[in-house]
Amino acid sequence: MKNLCAIYAENGPPSATIQIESRERPQPQAGELLIRMELAPVNPSDLNMIEGTYGIKASLPAVAGNEGVGVVEALGPGVDAAWLQRRVRPATGTGTWQQWVACPASDCLRFPASLSAEQAAMLYVNPATAWRMLHDFIPLQPGEWVIQNAANSAVGRSVIQIAKAQGWKSINLVRRPEVIQELRDLGADAVLLDEPDSLPAIKELCGSHAPRLALNAVGGESVQLLSKAVATGAKIVTYGAMSKQGLRLGNGLLIFKDLSYHGYWVSRWYQQAERNQIDAMFESLAQLNLQIPVAAIHPLSEVREALAAAEQGRRNGKILLRLNE
Fold first, then answer.
1. 185-203 b/e with 16+ CB inside 10 Å = b?
2. pTM across the whole model
3. Half-sphere exposure of 180 (CA within 13 A, CB side)
4. What pLDDT is stored for residue 170 in this prediction?
């Protein structure tokens, strides 16, 4: 039986490079699950992988996609029957943009039945990035401020919701005024335009309790604003570069405010974490019932259209692929 896959045999522009190929449906071997894939998001990291500009490179040809969700339809020898019909994320490195996946049960992640397929499909990368950055750099106290740019992104929205649930307050910088009220409704304590003129308002909000943690996914001049807004000794964590510009730090800020700048890549955390740590994080995230908007869902046959849409700016939500009709 067929298994349609979105494959790239060379690196290049995603919407021009990806191809749909029909392969044989895999059969689960000992210890494996056969997963009927449901949905997978198109993340910036997926685009970078296809382009060949990501931190790791795939062995080509490769099935695209690093995140997604499916339902267990069959089991290989030695697998507990409790896995059947469970909604799961396949093992890392499997390639999620395909209709069927067979992979070791020990490397799969179970999702609670209460979590929708759409939200489960998007939980592994962006909400996990937000959770780890909020917990791993500064021991935040109740009522403490956190500041971020790119607040309308999936990570940014996750930061807002996690911070609210944990009792922290968030200052959120955006480039489009039309999303301000939406983020306030989501739980943001303050939403301001990502421009230098917002600095006095940030300082008035925080008073003598400036943020000790800033999250950056933009780069360029936006980092200057974050650096001026945070407290002396603060940590500024970069996990993206939407502006495609380098960090503009400023010698005086480094010297007189004793700021420290860190990069963050959640894939490295997954490589180093114990399984019980991963399970505990996802149990916490699932309980929060985070809501990440979906801009559009494309069938797998329209993967090129989906990639072209994902490459466009000014979207208000993720692009998803529907892998089985």
1. ebebbbbbebeeebeeebe
2. 0.93
3. 10
4. 98
- Per-residue pLDDT of 279-322, as tens digits, reads 999 999 989 989 999 999 999 999 999 999 998 877 789 999 99
Q: Which domains does the chain have, with CATH numbers?
A: 2-122+292-322 (3.90.180.10), 126-267 (3.40.50.720)
pLDDT band of residue 244 (cuts 50, 70, 90) is confident
Q: What is the pLDDT of residue 251?
A: 80
Report the alpha-carbon distance of residue 246 to residue 269 in Å, rounded.
Answer: 24
Do 171 and 234 contact (CB within 8 A), yes or no? no
Indicate the average pLDDT of the chain: 94
**Token pair of 283, please?**
């149990």
Three-state SS string over 160-219 comes to HHHHHHHCCEEEEEECCHHHHHHHHHHCCCEEEECCHHHHHHHHHHHCCCCCCEEEECCC
Q: What does the alpha-carbon distance between residue 294 and residue 108 come to, in Å, rounded to a whole number?
A: 24
Backbone angles phi, psi at 150, to 5 degrees: 50, 40
C-alpha closest to that of 30 among 86, 83, 93, 104: 104
CA distance linking residue 311 with residue 47, whole number of Å = 8
- What is the Cα Rg of the chain in Å? 20
Q: If we measure between CA atoms, which residue out of 127, 166, 159, 161 comes closest to residue 144?
A: 166
Q: Are 98 and 37 in contact (CB under 8 A)?
A: yes
| H-run or E-run covering 65 | none
Catalytically active residues are 54
Which pair of tokens denotes residue 75? 């089991």
- The rounded distance, in Å, linking the Cα atoms of 78 and 66 is 26
Give residue 147's pLDDT band: very low, low, confident or very high (50, 70, 90).
very high
DSSP-based three-state secondary structure for 21: strand
**Cis preceding-peptide flag for 14 (omega within 30 of 0):** no
Q: Which residue has the higher pLDDT, 72 or 243?
A: 72
